[in-house]
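WARN no homologs supplied; continuing
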Amino acid sequence: MIQNLSKQIDSLSLQEKILLVEELWNNISETAATLGLSEAQKKELARRLESFEKSPELGRPWEDIKRDIARL
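OK structure emitted
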């Protein structure tokens, strides 16, 4: 099945491939939104929040990080 699908994808134009990716992404994002977080993810988020609350001065604003990355 995957090989047949790969052949079909190969036959698409670049524009059609981009549209396919957009459709796949939309489908995945809709499905993922209904899944929720796993217990491991919830624990990790709780750990990070606790760490931040204990020492907020150790963090950096996201805008600063994005700006630094953009300079690279």
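Residues 64 and 70 are 10 Å apart (CA to CA).
OK
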